TrEMBL record:
Gene designation: argB
Lineage: Bacteria, Bacillati, Bacillota, Bacilli, Bacillales
Stated name of the protein: Acetylglutamate kinase
Protein source organism: Paenibacillus macerans (Bacillus macerans)
EC number: 2.7.2.8
Keywords tagged on the record: Amino-acid biosynthesis, Arginine biosynthesis, ATP-binding, Cytoplasm, Kinase, Nucleotide-binding, Transferase
GO CC term, one of those recorded: cytoplasm
Length: 279
């Protein structure tokens, strides 16, 4: 169910009061993000921009699984998830990682509210098609946009942990990129920002790796087939493609360590890799 959020993005896509965007932050990036990144988030919030954050937490999950002697296994970039693994996933994502982000935003003077995708039916899910290979990994079937709208209208940044549940109450581990794409499409925002620890999608040109300024959906498919996009980057770009096929006009992949990166993206500066439907 989609609910219009007060202060939605303006049709012209200009940075203005009340602009909303969805930001996905990778688990491998979170620990390295400087305080200034969260300060920039707060400045955007204070200026009337409405960030919606969906986060991962892969390294912390792997670390905790290791401490407990539970094997970590990945299939096509997705973590194999048993009930035992899922207990740790939920503990880390909905607990320590989610609250760490909320604390860092608060420390910078902002207002944030941490949510699990299980809360209020925020992320409704079903098993992915390859569940026989990856276990309890889910795909999003619905987003409770009313809940996101309510949090935003109270003046808080929603910080969403990508754990969802099916109608039978079964929990699912949802890839954070996939969850962010579903949230962005449901909210109808014009732009999704994927914050990573890389400067964008790289392509080897004349023996040198370069960041692609813009790439189309078809070019992404070609690069996956050629093996130039592989591993954990595949779910990132797949989620972007799924998102773009909905209401989102563009997805930008950027390095979170770049000073002022969010403001640069929102003001239209050329940074990172912009994924679009077509050129």
């Amino acid at each position: 169910m989609t609910t219009a959020v007060n202060s939605a993005p303006d049709a012209a896509g200009k940075l203005s009061g009340g602009r909303m965007f969805v930001m996905k932050c990778g688990g491998s990036t979170l620990a390295e993000l400087p305080d200034s990144f969260f300060g920039d988030l707060v400045k955007l919030q204070e200026s009337g921009v409405q960030p919606v954050i969906v986060h991962g937490g892969g390294p912390a999950i792997s670390e905790n699984l290791g401490k407990l002697g539970i094997e970590s296994k990945f299939v096509n970039g997705l973590r194999y998830t048993s009930e035992e693994v899922l207990d740790v996933v939920e503990m880390v994502l909905s607990g320590s990682i989610n609250k760490m982000i909320v604390r860092r935003i608060a420390k910078s003077g902002g207002k944030a509210l941490g949510l699990s995708g299980v809360d209020g039916g925020l992320l409704q899910a079903k098993p992915v098609a390859a569940s026989h290979e990856v276990g309890l990994v889910g795909e999003v079937t619905g987003v409770n946009a009313d809940l996101v709208a309510g949090v935003l209208n109270l003046g808080y940044m929603p910080v969403i942990a990508p754990v969802g549940a099916g109608p039978d109450g079964q929990r699912y581990n949802i890839n954070a990129d996939t969850a962010a794409g579903a949230v962005a499409s449901e909210l109808g925002v014009s732009r999704m920002i994927v914050v990573t620890d890389v400067p964008g999608i790289m392509k080897t040109v004349n023996g040198e790796k370069r960041v692609l300024e813009t790439i189309t959906v078809q070019q992404i498919e070609d690069m996956i087939l050629a093996g130039e996009i592989y591993g954990g980057m595949i779910p990132k770009v797949r989620a972007a493609v799924d998102c773009i096929s909905g209401k989102v006009k563009e997805v930008v992949i950027v390095n979170g360590a770049e000073p002022g990166v969010l403001g640069k993206v929102l003001s239209g500066e050329k940074i990172g890799t912009k994924i679009v439907r077509m050129q």
